[in-house]
Amino acid sequence: MAVGDNPPLCDRPPMNAFVAAYPAIVCTALLACSNLFMTIAWYGHLKALNDRPWWIAALVSWGIALFEYLLQVPANRIGFTALSLAQLKILQEVITLTVFVPFALLFMGAAPKLDYVWAGLCMMGAVYFIFRA
Fold first, then answer.
1. Are 4 and 84 in contact (CB under 8 A)?
2. CA gap 48, 26 in Å, rounded
3. Given pLDDT bands bounded at 50, 70 and 90, which one contains residue 16?
4. Cβ proximity of 99 and 41 under 8 Å
5. pLDDT (tens digit, 9 = 90+) per residue, 48-73?
6. CA-CA-CA-CA torsion for 22, 69, 122, 80, nearest 10 degrees?
7. Rounded to the nearest 10 degrees, what angle do helices 85-102 and 54-79 cross at?
8. What b/e string do you get for 26-51 counting C-beta neighbours within 10 Å, with b at 16 or more?
9. CA distances to 55, 69, 91 from 77, in Å
10. Which of 27, 66, 95, 119 could form a disulfide with 79 if both were Cys (CB 3.0 to 4.6 A apart)?
11. In the Cβ-directed half-sphere of 122, how many Cα atoms lie within 13 Å?
């Protein structure tokens, strides 16, 4: 069995024709949306709710995280039809960095750092090693 060739799941429901034809693209789009919710849930409270008690921030973050999971679980199930587990993980990490850097700069007001470029280059190396045949 080649990398990315996952055994069929016996209880897998039928997929939409577009999803079945382009599972990696659909997975990537869903994970990007999921990551936006995740980043806001994990870090948005540091700015938006910093004057509230921690438990209010936690409840709001949990509510936001629900939407992350509603996108992330189907994304991984769809992606696993075409990608290996390692490929799904590195895809998630690349998307996380791609979403986090603009969030940190634009929403949180973080200063741009050359370290973000170096981290991106390291991720490109990880992608190469995970996706090479």
1. yes
2. 31
3. confident
4. no
5. 999 999 999 999 999 999 999 999 99
6. -40
7. 140
8. bbbebbbbbbbbbbbbebbbeeebee
9. 32, 12, 14
10. 27
11. 8
- The token duo for 31 is 């994970």
Q: pTM score, two decimals? A: 0.83
Element (H, E) at 86: helix 85-102
Q: What angle do CA 32, 33, 37 make, to 5 degrees?
A: 115
Residue 70: both structure tokens together: 């509603």
